[in-house]
Amino acid sequence: MPARRTQAGPVPDRSRPAWAVPVGLGVVLFLYTVFLSHNNGFSEAGGWLLGLVVAAVATGIGYVLVRERNAMIPEVRALSYGALAGITIGFLHSVSGGSWLRSLGIGLGFGVLVGLLSYDVFHWNQYPMRR
Q: Which parts pass through the membrane (predicted)?
């Protein structure tokens, strides 16, 4: 989100806290990882611990990406979101019992798709059409 300009200088956008979206997605990721791990032979404590670690790492990286979004150009921002999404989906597929090669392919495909869609959204928001 671009900052507004005033005579005192730029005013940062505070419409939504930077932690809200990453924490919400981290909770969903935590619950889904615990569900997958329990359905695929992990112990009770191991499933909860795996879910907690996955959610903490993804939430932390997501928070940094959201917090620093104005400092990145659209290409780097889209690449970052695509990488985070692809790694997360590939890992979740491996937890669900998929082979490492299939998990790699699904994660790579999903990461490319999210990166391209993110770039399209970021590019059109930064350079709107002029009529």
A: 20-39, 45-66, 78-95, 101-122
Sign of dihedral through CA atoms 68, 1, 118, 106? positive
User: Which amino acid belongs to residue 107?
Assistant: G
H helix or E strand, kind and range, residue 86:
helix 74-95
Per-residue pLDDT tens digits for 61-119:
999 999 998 899 989 999 999 999 999 999 999 999 989 999 999 999 999 999 999 99
* Closest listed residue to residue 13, CA positions, set 125, 130, 127, 97: 125
Token duo for residue 5 = 């300009």
Q: What angle do CA 94, 100, 103 make, to 5 degrees?
A: 55
Residue 12: partners with Cβ closer than 8 Å, 6 or more residues away? 3
Residue 10 parent element (H or E):
strand 9-11
What are 33's strand-pairing partners?
none
User: Is the whole model's pTM more than 0.90, yes or no?
Assistant: no
Residue the block writes with tokens 């998990």: 103
DSSP 3-state assignment of 18? coil
